[in-house]
Amino acid sequence: MVGRYIGLTVAGLIWTATGSVAETALERGRYLVNSVVGCGNCHTPQTPTGPAPGMEMAGQFLIQNEAFKAYAPNISQDNETGIGSWSDGEIITAIRDGIRPDGTLIGPPMPFEFYRDISDTDIRAIVAYLRTVPATRNVVPRSTFNIPLPPAYGPPVTSVPDTPRNDPVRYGVYLTGPLGHCWSCHTPMVNGRQDFENQLGAGGQELDGPWGVAVTANITLHEDGIKGYSDDDIIQAITQGIRPDGSRLSPPMGFYYYSNIAADDLAAIVAYMRTVEPRPSP
After folding, report:
1. Are 96 and 123 in contact (CB under 8 A)?
2. Half-sphere exposure of 147 (CA within 13 A, CB side)
3. What is the dihedral of CA 131, 134, 135, 139, to 10 degrees?
4. Mean pLDDT score of the chain
5. Which residue from 98, 125, 101, 99 is spatially nearest to 109, judged by alpha carbons?
6. How far apart (Å, rounded) are the C-alpha atoms in residues 242 and 194?
7. Is residue 203 exposed (0-12), middle (13-18) or buried (19+ Cβ within 10 Å)?
8. Nearest partner of 17 among 25, 7, 32, 29, judged by Cα
9. Fold of 168-273
10. Residues 212 and 197: beta-carbon distance below 8 Å
């Protein structure tokens, strides 16, 4: 797990290390879900101009490859086809541990390797926001897998403290990992799982979805990746989907959501990306 400090949530308020009120849990959750976490990038049907109106978190067909055919489930507050009947604890367990209320395991591409490390403060904030998403009835098929799923993604998550925001690199680890799960798409897959140990950020993963077939980019400082990018170039690619040469990135890169990432968080993301080991594209 990345290093963290212990935060405190009382009466729906998120407190800073100095004890001053920073924002409410709902405000924090709204920001996270609609920016760096980008839940709607998978769980909301997308159109060429952005999320489909009236379908927030209602689920959609996502991607298919040799390992699985994945559907992002309805996570609106509909009681029958969404998660409206789930308790807060059940939602948290689903996000962190990949286990539904009925005990079944959720499979990839949900990035549980990262979501397990979302802090208690932020996971509660995310749930607080999800509770405000209008109920939309939309039946979404279950994903199917051609690979065996593990019995679990690790021991049950108990408590995860906050990561300090005063260390940009350390907080960038948290933003790109547990929250943004950037490496989940930008790392090649081996036997149905990403090879984080040997190829973190090297790209080359084929994502066959509603957008067609997309190949993820190398986002390490290798010549195959973003070695020549300035900090502003990296931020422009993340938030606008535009490369330094003016060409556009394609979905499923979630720049519609990433355009809402705060300047300080973008700076932390770039600070950490500058430390990632350069690796060639597969």
Report:
1. yes
2. 17
3. -100
4. 91
5. 98
6. 26
7. buried
8. 7
9. Cytochrome Bc1 Complex; Chain D, domain 2 (1.10.760)
10. no
Radius of gyration of the chain (CA): 18
Residues 201-253: pLDDT tens digits?
Answer: 999 998 888 888 899 999 999 999 999 999 999 999 999 999 999 999 989 99
Could you tell me which residues are beta bridge partners of residue 216?
none
Residue 14 pLDDT class (50, 70, 90 cuts) = low
In the beta sheet, which residues pair with residue 215?
Answer: 206
What are 132's two structure tokens? Answer: 């405000």
Q: Which residues of 45-64 are buried (b: 16+ CB within 10 A; e: fewer)?
A: bbeeeebeeebbbbbbebbb
Q: Which pLDDT score, from 0 to 100, does residue 49 have? A: 82
Residue with tokens 């597969």: 282
Q: Domain residues of the chain, as ranges?
A: 8-145, 168-273
Q: 44 with 60: CB under 8 angstroms?
A: yes
Beta-carbon contacts of 107 under 8 Å, excluding residues fewer than 6 positions away, are 68, 70, 98, 143, 145, 149
Integer CA distances (angstroms), 183 to 65, 98, 168, 260, in order = 18, 18, 18, 20
Residue type, 175: L
The residue assigned the tokens 């920073």 is 22
| Cβ atoms 187, 243 nearer than 8 A | no
Q: Which residue has the tokens 């990949």?
A: 98
